[in-house]
Each structure stands twice: as C-alpha cells, then as structure tokens.
Design brief:
single chain, mainly alpha, rod-shaped, coiled coil
Length: 177
C-alpha cells in the first residue's frame, strides 16, 4: 500500500531530477552559445586576414607592373632608343592604378587594427611607404636611374612583403589550426 511518505518521496525525487535537468540544459546551452560565438569570431578574423592578403597582393601586382615598365624604359634609354608612346600611355594607366590601389591598402590596414594585429599593421604601413618611396625615386625620365638602384629597392620591398606574410601566416596558423 502506498503511503503519503512514499508519494512525497517520489514527488521530491521527480522534482529534484527536473531541477537538475533544467540546470544542466541551461548550462549546456550557455556553453554551446559561447563556443559558437568563438567559432564565428575566429571565422571572421580568418576572413579579414585573407582579405588583407588579397589587398596586399593587388598592390604588389600593380607595383610590379610599374617596376617592369620603368625597367623597360631604362633599357630603351640605355640603348639610345625612343620608348614607344603606347608604353608611355600604359605607364600612365599603371600610375593611376597604383594610386587607386592605395585605397584598398588603407582598407587592409584598418582591418588589421580591427582584429588587433598591430605588428602586421606596422609592417603593412612600412611596405606601403616603401612602394611610395619607390614610386617617388624610380620614374621614367630620371636620367640617373639605373637597373641596380631599382633592383635594390625591389629587393627591399620583396623582403617587407615576405615579412608581412610571415606575420599573417603565423597568426593564421596559431589562432585557427
């Protein structure tokens, strides 16, 4: 026969089980939400680093087009030949493209600051400044310009680019592996 104590005992056990289940479910949901937030942040961080790399490569591509045209002019000039007008026109287009590419470089800098990559930001600024100095000191119609001078500057820019990518790669691999 079931007594009042047995009923109360069973009710307390069921109630306690329900409370424990509710607490465990709440705790699990909270932990899962935090985990999803962390994964979403890491995904966004990774995406921003990839965008920075793409924007840096845009600058590098345009800068190398400019470099190639200036080297071509040096060689024409050294051989006493006149540089074709079509190449001069192309150089003007590349100069405009180089100028506009710096807008995306500024965008990349802001992304690095946004995700707290201050060292990579500084390296990207340094790379941008090196390209600006290259453009200011290596140009068509500068009679004293030599291939050796232009090659030295190219090597310096290449080193800065490699250093930047090394930093980005370390962050990418450390944070998201």
């Amino acid at each position: 026969m079931t007594t009042l104590i047995d009923v109360l005992d069973t009710a307390v056990k069921i109630g306690l089980g329900a409370v424990i289940t509710a607490f465990a479910t709440h705790w699990h949901s909270k932990q899962k939400g935090k985990s999803e937030s962390i994964r979403e942040y890491e995904k966004r961080h990774r995406t921003l680093l990839e965008q920075v790399a793409e924007q840096t490569e845009q600058l590098n591509h345009v800068y190398l087009k400019y470099w190639a045209l200036v080297v071509e002019w040096i060689r024409f000039n050294k051989n006493g030949k006149e540089w074709p007008q079509s190449r001069k026109d192309e150089l003007e287009e590349v100069k405009a493209e180089l100028f506009s590419t710096f807008g995306s470089l500024t965008n990349a800098e802001s992304k690095l600051l946004l995700v707290g990559e201050h060292e990579a930001y500084s390296k990207l600024r340094e790379l941008g400044e090196a390209v600006v100095q290259f453009r200011r000191s290596c140009y068509v119609d500068k009679e004293t310009l030599t291939e050796e001078e232009i090659e030295e500057k190219k090597i310096q820019i290449k080193k800065l680019r490699e250093d930047l990518y090394k930093m980005l790669s370390e962050t990418y691999q450390t944070n998201f592996a």
